[in-house]
Specification:
Helices cover 59% and strands 0% of the residues. The chain is an all-alpha fold.
């Protein structure tokens, strides 16, 4: 199914982008740790994950049919959000990416984000293993249509 078939597809795009970056250790090493511009940082990814959705305040289940396709997808996103937010609260929102990645819970957060990303990419008919889009490409995507 195309991404734009969802009523709130722009928010879906932002959540997917965040999950994609949070789920990819190679991307994190090669872009975030290396300081490449154009992808934001881990705090930016967390912000995109919860910004408009308020997933830090309630379950993704609330958005089934608007941002999320079904309850299974929502449940996987909820797990990823909780894992990532727990780390953010431990290390601080403005901590460097290395601090996040050194946190004892980071591997589990990456795994949870990967499971949610895989499910959502499959639901949208996209390849989950392509590199994450830059924030500029994401902005172009969400401004189109």
């Amino acid at each position: 199914m195309p991404l734009t078939d969802m009523p709130w597809w722009r928010w879906r795009s932002n959540v997917r982008s965040a999950l994609h970056m949070l789920s990819d250790p190679v991307f994190q090493r090669d872009c975030w740790l290396a300081g490449h511009d154009g992808y934001g940082d881990v705090t930016d990814a967390v912000y995109r994950l919860v910004e408009d959705t308020w997933l830090d305040n309630w379950s993704a289940e609330k958005y089934v049919g608007t941002i999320f396709r079904d309850s299974q997808e929502a449940a996987l996103v909820d797990v990823a959000v909780l894992r990532v937010l727990r780390i953010m609260h431990d290390v601080g929102a403005d901590a460097p990416v290395s601090t996040y990645m050194e946190h004892h819970g980071w591997p589990e957060a990456v795994r949870a984000a990967r499971e949610a990303h895989l499910r959502r990419a499959a639901s949208d008919g996209e390849d989950a293993d392509v590199p994450p889009r830059s924030l500029h490409a994401l902005a172009q995507l969400t401004q189109s249509v």
